[in-house]
Design brief:
The complex is a heterodimer of chains A (about 200) and B (about 210). Chain A has 9 helices and no strands. With about 200 residues, chain A is mostly helical. Chain A is globular. Chain B is mostly helical. Chain B has one domain. Chain B is about 75% helix and about 0% strand. Chain B has a two-stranded antiparallel sheet with strand order 1-2. The two termini of chain B are about 30 Å apart. Classes of the chains: A mainly alpha (about 200), B mainly alpha (about 210). At the A-B interface, helix 2, helix 4, helix 7 and helix 9 of A face helix 2, helix 4 and helix 9 of B.
Chain lengths: ~200, ~210
C-alpha cells in the first residue's frame, strides 16, 4: 500500500468512477434532494460522513463474519450495521453538535436507504481493500457524491426558470440534465491511463 | 380485493418506476442488456411478493417504532436467499448484476410497498400487490433494456438483430444513455397520462 495507490483510489472514486455518474449508486437522494444547492450540500456532507464511518465499521464486521464462516450473512449484517450506525450518529450529533445536527437533521435518517452507503461497503469487500483503503474509498466516494449532487442542484436551480415542453417537466428534464453531466464526467475516464 | 384495478395501478397509473419514481439506481445501472433486465426484474418480483406477504402477515407483531428496521431485516433475508440461488444456478447473471443484487435491500420500491401497502392490507391483497408492482417494474426494465441493447450493441438477448451495416451507438449502453433513455421514457409516459387526464376532464365537462 502506497500513497500513489490511495491517490488513485481517491481520484477514481471522485472522478472516473463517480458513484452517481458511472456506478449509479445513490440515485434516489440525488434526484430527490437536489432542488436547492444548500440542501444538496447538506445531504452530500451527511452522506460523505456516513460513508466513511460505514466503510470503517463494515470492514471489521466483515472480518468477524469471515472468521465465523458466515459470509452469506453479509447483506443482512451490513444493512443492520448501517441502520444502527445512522441511528447512533443521529443521537450523538443531537447531543454533541447541535448546529451540525440541525443542518443535516432531516437527511440523516434518509441515508440508511441510500444505496451508495451499502454499495460502498459491498464494493470494499469485493475489491479486497485493506482498512485504510476502505476508509479512503468511502470518504472520497462520498465526496464524489457531494460534487455530483452540488453540480446537479446548481443546474436545476437555473432550470426552474427555463421553459420546458410540458411532458418533460419535472423528472424527465432532470434525468436528461443528469445524462449530460454524466457525459461530462465520462471525459475523466481517459485518466485511467496513468493510474 | 380487486385484481384488475391493482394490475392497472402497478402497470400504469402507479407504476413504481415511471410514476412513483422508485428504484431508479438498479433501473439505470443494469438496463444495458435484456438478459440482465429479466434477471433483475424477476428477482425483484419474487422478493417484493415474498416480503409483502411476510410483512403483511407479521404486521400485528411488529411494533411501529422499529418497523422500518424490521422491514429491512425481512427484506434482507429474502434478498440473501435470491442472491445465493442466483449464484448457484445462474452464475453468469449473478456476475453481470454484481453488487446490484444485494442492493435490492435498499431498493425503495420494496420498502415503499411494505410501508405504504402491505402494513395496512391483508396477506392476499399484499401478495397481489407485490406481483402487480413487480410486473410493472419488470416491464419498464424490459422496455428500457430492449431499447438500450438494440441501439447500443445491435443485439437482443445476445443475438445479432440489427443488420451488419449498423454501427452500434456505444453511448446508449454507457451511463449517459441510461439517464437519457429513462428521461425520454418518463417524458413519453407523462405525455400520455396528461392526455388521458385531459380527455377525462373534457368528458366530465361535457356531462355536466
Amino acid at each position: 500500500m502506497s500513497l500513489t495507490n490511495l491517490l488513485a483510489i481517491s481520484l477514481g472514486a471522485i472522478l472516473t468512477n463517480n458513484f452517481i455518474f458511472s456506478q449509479f449508486l445513490g440515485i434516489c437522494p440525488f434526484l430527490g434532494v437536489s432542488k436547492k444547492t444548500d440542501t444538496a450540500i447538506g445531504m452530500g456532507l451527511a452522506v460523505t460522513f456516513v460513508m466513511g464511518l460505514a466503510s470503517a465499521f463494515t470492514f471489521f464486521v466483515n472480518k468477524l463474519l469471515v472468521a465465523l464462516g458466515l459470509e452469506y450473512m453479509q447483506t443482512v449484517a451490513f444493512i443492520l450495521v448501517i441502520a444502527s450506525l445512522v441511528q447512533f450518529v443521529e443521537m450523538f450529533m443531537k447531543k454533541a453538535m447541535p448546529t451540525l445536527y440541525t443542518a443535516l437533521g432531516v437527511y440523516l435518517p434518509l441515508i440508511t436507504t441510500n444505496c451508495a452507503v451499502l454499495g460502498v461497503a459491498l464494493l470494499n469487500v469485493q475489491s479486497n481493500y485493506n482498512f485504510i483503503e476502505s476508509v479512503v474509498y468511502g470518504i472520497t466516494g462520498g465526496l464524489g457524491f457531494l460534487l455530483a449532487i452540488f453540480l446537479f442542484a446548481a443546474v436545476r436551480e437555473s432550470l426552474e426558470f427555463a421553459e420546458t415542453p410540458k411532458c418533460f417537466e419535472g423528472f424527465p428534464i432532470a434525468l436528461i440534465t443528469a445524462g449530460l453531466l454524466a457525459l461530462g464526467f465520462m471525459g475523466f475516464s481517459g485518466m485511467v491511463v496513468w493510474q | 380485493m380487486n385484481f384488475k384495478k391493482q394490475l392497472k395501478e402497478g402497470l400504469i397509473t402507479q407504476n413504481p418506476v415511471l410514476v412513483q419514481l422508485l428504484g431508479m439506481c438498479s433501473v439505470l445501472a443494469i438496463s444495458t442488456s435484456v438478459s440482465n433486465g429479466l434477471g433483475m426484474g424477476i428477482s425483484v418480483l419474487i422478493i417484493l411478493t415474498c416480503s409483502n406477504v411476510a410483512i403483511s402477515a407479521l404486521k400485528k407483531f411488529i411494533p411501529s417504532e422499529v418497523r422500518i428496521a424490521c422491514y429491512i431485516v425481512v427484506i434482507a433475508g429474502f434478498v440473501t436467499c435470491v442472491d445465493l440461488l442466483l449464484q448457484a444456478f445462474l452464475p453468469s447473471i449473478a456476475k453481470s448484476l454484481g453488487v446490484f443484487i444485494p442492493l435490492i435491500v435498499v431498493n425503495c420500491i420494496i420498502l415503499g410497498r411494505a410501508e405504504g401497502f402491505s402494513s395496512k392490507n391483508s396477506v392476499a391483497a399484499s401478495a397481489v400487490d407485490g406481483i402487480c408492482q413487480g410486473i410493472g417494474y419488470t416491464l419498464v426494465l424490459l422496455v428500457l433494456c430492449t431499447f438500450r441493447e438494440l441501439l447500443g450493441s445491435g443485439t437482443l438477448l445476445g443475438i445479432q438483430v440489427m443488420p451488419a451495416s449498423y454501427t452500434p451507438a456505444l453511448m446508449v449502453v454507457l451511463p449517459v444513455g441510461g439517464f437519457l433513455s429513462l428521461g425520454l421514457l418518463i417524458a413519453v409516459m407523462q405525455y400520455f397520462l396528461n392526455k388521458s387526464k385531459e380527455k377525462n376532464s373534457k368528458k366530465e365537462a361535457e356531462q355536466a
